[in-house]
Specification:
2 domains; Aspartate Aminotransferase, domain 2; seven-stranded mixed β-sheet; Aspartate Aminotransferase, domain 1; binds pyridoxal-5'-phosphate; three-stranded antiparallel β-sheet
Length: 356
Amino acid sequence: MKVHNFSAGPCILPQVVFDKMAEACLNFNNSGTSILEISHRRKDAVEVMDTARALVKELMNVPETHDVLFMQGGASLQFPTVAYNLLKEGGKAAYLDSGKWAANAIKEAKRFGEINVVASSKEDNYNYVPKGYEIPTDVDYFHCTSNNTIFGTQMKEFPTTNVPVVCDMSSDILSKHVDVSKFGVIYAGAQKNMGPAGSAVAIVQKDLLGKTGRNIPDYLNYATHIAKESSFNTWPVIAIYGVMLNLQWLKEQGGVDAIAKINTAKAEAMYAEIDRNGLFTGTANVEDRSQMNATFVLNNEDVKAEFDAMLKEAGVVSLAGHRDVGGYRASMYNALPLESVKVLVEVMKQFEQKFG
Ligand SMILES: *Cc1c(COP(=O)(O)O)cnc(C)c1O
């Protein structure tokens, strides 16, 4: 039976990615060696890294002012890395507290300087994206989270400011057009929309570096990875290979603008059913709803077991909401086909006929 995987991350990837990764585990590039047993400095491994970086540049239209780096430690290690590289000794930074990951980023940055939280939606369990806040002009940067994976909210626009904007795009990178030139740093853990777990991407405006007066450990210094072309130390060839294959797939689909149309169609179908169906309620503020993660709850928890049984029967998996929100979360990343959303919507309709 075909399974419809709505996992929030690590998440569904295109079938071709799985096929080629499986093949590479046995015999990479017909070399007689597995991709798991080769040096990251072997010529065809270097090609994987170079291709992955070039594809990010191409698909996101990254300007010459920026470089694309793959690092380890996921998005979580980018939280302190960003502060290490951009927050001056004795300096200040502004942060938007729009969700749990944003709060984690704030916690890490506080180790490095004074953090001004410009707005927070924490008191409403992060069910909306704060707006109308002011970003001070005397901060080293402003940090925000484009998509709040757990709560199902997404920034529809980014503030205009003279300070560098740093954005955690872990769960919506490459899902729609973004003007990279407007950002100082964009980073993302790979496992939501870019590839398998095991790497993070950082897109860094080069002229922002080297100004903090800090003695940055080599690995955490963006400048190191720029100089070494993302091969400072041993990187996970299989993980970056997965990213590369996924980016190649995305390019074949017509790139970011083409996939954005499909993502919009998926989200529209999903939210239309959440709003139409009397047995469910969406948890996120309507105007801030995420195209990637749709969060909703059952109005009557007494029939939860019945709904869950119907989901299972239809092959819908990993729909459980995060424990901080409860209910359900339909994650609709690039690789999730519209067909899977249609299956889920159909289950919700049938559920309403039985229990509505
Ligand atoms: C998942 C997630 C993270 C954490 O990613 P890791 O790679 O596990 O550290 C950070 N930010 C956002 C927005 C996320 O969705």
